[in-house]
Every structure is written in C-alpha cells, then in structure tokens.
Specification:
It is a single chain. Helices cover 2% and strands 45% of the residues. It is built from 1 helix and 29 strands. It starts with 24 loop residues before the first strand and ends with a strand. The relative contact order is 0.13.
C-alpha cells in the first residue's frame, strides 16, 4: 500500500462537528454574556485507511445584550382622586424584555399642556410633591413608608414589577371643569448584577462587534415621550379629580309597642322607634370626614346604647355589619350628648353608602 504523500492519496471523507456551551434561554433570548463556542473536526482516509481526525481550534464569542423594556399604566388611563388627597398613586408596570438582569432608573414628570394636546390627553393642573416608588412587597398597592425604593434593582429577564407615581392633590385652585393632571413615568435601562445600588445607564455600543465583550444593542420601541431604540420607555398616567355628591335618606320604623310587642307594632306611647340615616355618595370622588348630627325628637327619649354607625341598609332597614361601631364605649364614631346623636364616617367612596342607626322611646 502506498503511503507516500507525493502520490497524492485522496482525502475520501470530511466531516464537521460543532460543540456549543449550554446557554440559559428565556423568552427574551439567550442570556447576555453567555459564551458560545464551537470547533470543527475533519475525518479522512489515505489509500482507504482511516486516519486520526484533525480538530480545529475552538472559536468563541459572547452573547451581546439586547436592551428592551416596556412601561404601561395599570387599569386604564385615569386614576380617580379627590381634592386634598395626599399620597395618591398611579400604578404602572415595568417589564424587562432584555436578555439579562437589569436595573432601571425611574423618572417621574408632569405632562406639559403641549405634550398632552399632541397626544390627545387632558392636563389642566399640576399635582404637588410628585415622587416615584417601587412596589417592594408585590401587593400592587402603594404602602406609605413601606414602598421606599426609587429605582428598580436587579429585575430578571422577562420579569415585571409595579411602580407608583405618588403625588399630593391640591385642595384648592383646581379648574372648575374636569380637573386632570397628566403625569409621565420613564424607565431607563441601567447595568445590573450589583444588588443594592443603581447601575449606570447602558449606552449602545457604537463600534464593530467584539467576540470577547458584551456589547449593548437598543431594541426598545418608542414610548409616549421617548424615541425608538433609545434604551428607555415612557407611559402616561392621569389624576382625575372627582367631586362627592351626597344623598341623605332618613327613615323611621316602629320596632315594638307595649301592647303588641314586636307583632305589627304601632307608634303608641311606650313604643320603640328606630331611625335609620343613610348617606350615599353618588359622585365620582371620595367624601371624607362626614359628620352626622341628629337632634332627638321632642316627646321621645333616646334608648341608651342604641346608636350604631357604619352599617348598610336592606329595603330601608339598617343592617349591622363588621364595620359597624356602637356608642357603648362612647366611641368617637358615635355618641349621644344628651340632646343630639352624633356620628362620624371617615371616608365614603364613590358609589358606596353607610348608615347611622339609633332608637327612641315614644313618651
């Protein structure tokens, strides 16, 4: 068998094999910084005799960072508030669509009238003390003194988190027609991997791709007030100031009398009559610090301990529920001062109602 290479023995077969390192895979793609490696192997024969395969060098590169994020207001365009509210909150979600763990710098801003007009939104007053906080306990509700972080720290790829724009609503000087304050939340991609501190903003790589470094590529869409592929995203929110409109209804029902007791009782001397005062808020805003005062009618005597505050009604009859408070302990919510029945209701949301109930004996 001739083995002299000068005889040009043919390479009869050539094969390639690829070897790639295992890489984390998420919806956003292979994790940035993952090393992708491969090498080639060539098998051949000379004169029909298989030779030892020859391997190439190993080629490798690092997966680059595809920076992408979205910001969206939670629950629609507007958040209803009342004049004078403090720590009113508009909720947003920030989603990390980047193929890496990221920090995000957060920016809170008022909408300008010009921007609002261009975007077809309303804005005719400014809120006070506008701030931004991250939902630290993931309950999707702003908790004063609990949600204190002002930036997003180490948000995993494909994960979302709730962020609040928090403000105080002026108690006076508001427009008379549809008071609306527009606000904007912007999130800016920042370097992650160092928990407990905000990383630097991530700048797009402007040089040719390098196999040994993780380059940054902006892939985000245009937000409300930011541009396409700029490493940030913004969304609009609104504080709409509603007004309370209270309806007060009072009923009197005879509960018992000395002759018929509780069976078809009549309003004769000695009868017990129950008054039910219902307050309903039919406006769009929340009413607060409601104070009910009702003078005990002449020719009647107040039934001690009968005042109950904070219940509801069914078919005009006052109910006692878990939120009701009696005057047994001279509660601040309800009391009898010898002449008047007094009851307080701290807040009454739009569309809700609460009651004060008390009884008298007919002299």
């Amino acid at each position: 068998m001739l083995r002299n290479f000068s005889n040009r023995a043919a390479i009869t077969a050539t094969t390639l094999s690829l070897v790639m390192s295992s890489a984390a895979q998420a919806a956003s793609g292979t994790t940035a910084g993952t090393s992708v490696t491969n090498s080639a192997s060539v098998a051949y024969t000379i004169g029909g005799v298989a030779q030892t395969p020859v391997s190439s060098n190993t080629a490798s590169f690092l997966v680059d960072r595809k920076i992408n994020l979205t910001v969206a207001q939670v629950g629609g365009q507007a958040t209803n508030v009342t004049a004078g509210d403090t720590n009113a909150a508009v909720a947003f979600t920030v989603t990390n669509n980047t193929n890496a763990v990221q920090d995000f710098r957060l920016i809170a801003a008022q909408q300008s009238n010009l921007v609002s007009t261009l975007l077809g939104r309303s804005d005719n007053f400014d809120v006070n003390n506008l701030r931004v906080f991250v939902d630290s306990n993931n309950n999707n509700s702003y908790d004063v003194g609990v949600d204190t972080a002002t930036y997003i720290d180490e948000l995993a790829a494909d994960a979302s988190i709730t962020v609040f724009l928090v403000a105080d609503i002026p108690s006076s000087g508001l427009p008379t027609t549809s008071p609306t304050a527009g606000v904007v939340l912007s999130a800016v991609a920042a370097a992650g991997s160092t928990g407990g501190s905000l990383g630097a903003d991530l700048a797009a790589s402007l040089l040719a791709d390098s196999a040994t470094t993780v380059d940054n590529v902006y892939a985000d869409a245009a937000g409300a007030i930011d541009a396409l592929r700029d490493g940030r995203f913004s969304a609009l929110g609104e504080f709409d100031v509603g007004s309370a409109s209270l309806e007060v209804t009072k009923t009197a029902i005879t509960i018992s009398d000395p002759l018929n007791l509780a069976v078809l009782p009549k309003a004769i001397p000695g009868a017990v009559v129950e008054y039910c005062i219902q307050v309903k808020n039919s406006g769009s805003g929340t009413a607060s610090s409601l104070a009910i005062t009702d003078a005990i009618p002449v020719k009647t005597t107040y039934v001690a301990g009968s005042l109950v505050v904070g219940g509801t009604t069914t078919l005009g009859v006052c109910n006692i529920d878990g939120s009701s408070v009696t005057d047994a302990n001279d509660s601040d919510a309800g009391q009898f001062d010898g002449t008047n029945v007094k009851a307080t209701i701290s807040t009454l949301a739009s569309g809700s109602s609460r009651t004060a109930r008390f009884r008298v004996t007919l002299n």
